[in-house]
Amino acid sequence: MPSATFRKGIHPFYFKRLTSELPVETLPLPETLEIPLQQHLGAPAKMLKSRGDQVTPGELIAEAVGMISANIHSPVYGEIKRVVQRPLPGGRMCDYVQIAVDRERTEAHRWERKEIELETLDRNAILAKIRDAGIVGMGGATFPTNVKLNPPPGIELDTLVVNGAECEPYLTCDHRLMVENPRGIFDGIRILFHALAFKSVVFGIEQNKPAAIAAVREAMSEYPELPLSIVPLATKYPQGGEKMLIYAVTGRTVPAGSLPLDVGVVVANVGTLNAISEAFYYGKPLVERFLTVSGEAIREPKNLRVLIGTQVDAVVDYCGGYSEDAGKILFGGPMMGVSVPTTDYSVMKGTSGLLFLSVKEIPEESPCIHCGRCAEVCPMNLMPLKLAAFAKAKRFEEAKALNVNDCFECGSCAWSCPAKIRLVSWIRYAKNYIRVKKI
Amino acid sequence: MSARTEGFLLTSSPHQFSESSTNRIMYVVILTLLPAVIMSVLYFGAYVLLLYAVGIGAAMATEVVTKLIRKKNWRTISDGSAVITGLLLVMSLPPRISPLLVGLGSVVAIFIGKELFGGLGANVFNPALVGRAFLAAAYPVPMTTWLAPNALFGFLGRVPDATTSATPLSSAKFEHTFESVGKLFLGQTGGSIGETAALFIILGGLVLILLRIVRWRTVVSYLGTVFLLGGLFWVINPSLYPSPVFQLFAGGLMLGAFYMATDMVTSPYTHLGSVIFGMGAGVLVVIIRLFGGFPEGVMYSILLMNAITPLLNRSINNKVFGRRPNRRGEGRS
């Protein structure tokens, strides 16, 4: 199959075989959930409940504040124990709502499918329902979906790009969703199609997922009213990056500093689309997700269905615990994921993976030998060796002039550097300095 | 089952890396040079082994001592860059030069050519060529005393055995007699220790290009320019000027093109920069060879283009995805 792609990028080792054939298992109900009030870009949600309150599955427990924010719901029957302040992965402090889970009642609970009349819902009603359900981008960016689908006046969205790339190593949860429940994804697409009347819907899937391509192709035939097409993508990182994906499947270039909506495109992750369909057809807000547990330091890698707020320890226990040499825990994939120093963190709406790696130390930086590999792989065509050198020399105006803010920190440069220079860290340093000092 | 809950490594992304490393690159380069090194021993005798040993040893010692003086980590010696400098320097020298001069050249190559600039990655000029340029200026006679390659598994000594002979390039320049290309290709002519066996240099160089250690654009633009410009003059007057194929295989051009012009630190890291570098060096080589005072121009062509490299690196930038050319960056803050 010929495949679409973007320029440059890297070919890391993928490790997908650890979990790609494993069907999704449902994690047994934990005893407690600790749900952070910030699992999305924008303002943290405002807590509506108090200590001692009883909650039910799907009940709103914190509401969105302002336009760029998201609602948070309880996944279970239980009791609010307390609210504690703890760090999120990455270090920012956040309120976590601790819920004691009523396992018996929750286990008996079922989300019932109901039919809805999509034709009776107009665009605003659909977007409002998406907002009520607390749906955010589940590919990891966690941008509130209803805001993304509501462009300013004058902007026409003509293409929906479905992101089935899953380009990070280790992660296979999107792959399993496409194989096991492609109709959930298409139901979500159909709902968005009713809201925004796209002229075309392009489903991008990397070539390393032939089973997913086949399953999606088969399910696609049941949705003849939708302007669907599947585009096989080259297996390359970062194929799933928004701008790279749009270029590969539509040929359009998102201008620097702009958003996909400026070229008439909206990108949606397959998990997000499935969550949208569950919100409409099951009345279920975003309270659980698929994720991949993998890495050489976890005994039994798995694909899991996990409730939002589940703690890392519960996941580790279900997956057989660590092998002896557990060194690093990552939220997300190894290229852009966030490492955490303890297990005192929770699965969130954007947590696509929990990786347990055995690495105990990072390689030492040696001098830049000007090999230029970083500039050869950067999907944004930047020159990381120059950006890092400017950052190191504190020449931030020059870094800004060289487009350091166009970097989306995919990590391809640092991956390819033979001198093991922490290029992304230096670039982040420059970006932060420029932002804070308003250079 | 370990129930560890804390003490995990905390670092920023990315958390996965390629297998490449600076050490690995250097060692691969050395490996690809070994066939040419072995051939040089067969052509010029075991004496050159002494020169290799002195050249490499002096380079490494100089690096260690300089690092100690600068209070830096001397274990950087293990990255192999000093070995490469010593190796390339010796390969560019006449086969019966004294070990003392080789040692001196190595010290200058490392101390002045690399460490004084700030160590690996900071130097502007190719260190091996800095050492050779020093020797050429300070010791012109030993640096132009050549030997025909007759000694197979020869002696170890400093007294030249056969008659000193001219190199194909000096014959071409001063006597307008041109050696056959076949002999040049296989190294059966007079010349520097390592540069005569063009076949083995090219093979090693091609491996480096395939492994993406050497920038092919530099090599192609360098050799291509020499071929075209040399060819132009040859067409104008074939009895006065050597053929372009002769130009390619005579002297140190192959060694210079594959191993010296492509030194990552001292050559441009952009595609356009590589092409400009190669073309400039190619023009200089032909001009010096045909009209300059020296029969050989590779060393100076590369050193002069090394001087331009910082400018090329500074002024050439990739066109950023999503930006029209020459738009300065601002981005979302």
Keywords:
heterodimer; A: 439 residues; alpha/beta; Rossmann fold; six-stranded mixed sheet; four-stranded antiparallel sheet; 14 helices; 17 strands; B: 333 residues; mainly alpha; Ammonium transporter fold; 13 helices; 55% helix; globular
Description:
The complex is a heterodimer of chains A (about 450) and B (about 325). By secondary structure, chain A is an alpha/beta fold. Chain A has two domains: about 1-25 and about 115-360, Rossmann fold (3-Layer(aba) Sandwich); about 375-435, no CATH class. Chain A is about 30% helix and about 20% strand. In chain A, the strands form four sheets. A six-stranded mixed beta sheet of chain A has the order 1-14-13-17-15-16, sandwiched between helices. A four-stranded antiparallel beta sheet of chain A has the order 2-8-7-4, with no helix packed on it. In chain A, about 55% of the residues are buried. The mean pLDDT of chain A is about 95. The longest helix of chain B has 23 residues, at about 20-45. Chain B has helices spanning about 20-45, 45-70, 80-90, 100-110, 125-140, 170-175, 180-185, 200-210, 215-235, 245-250, 255-260, 270-290, 300-315. Chain B is about 55% helix and about 0% strand. Chain B has one domain (about 25-315): Ammonium transporter fold (Orthogonal Bundle), CATH 1.10.3430. By secondary structure, chain B is mostly helical. Classes of the chains: A alpha/beta (about 450), B mainly alpha (about 325). Chains A and B meet through strand 15, strand 16, helix 13 and helix 14 of A and helix 1 of B.
Order of helices and strands of chain B: HHHHHHHHHHHHH
Structural class of chain A: alpha/beta
Q: Count every beta strand of chain A, where a strand is a DSSP E run of 2 or more residues.
A: 17
How many individual domains of chain B?
Answer: 1
**What integer is the average pLDDT of chain B?**
87
Summarize this, please?
The complex is a heterodimer of chains A (439) and B (333). With 439 residues, chain A is α/β, with parallel strands linked by helices. In chain A, 28% of the residues lie in helices and 19% in strands.
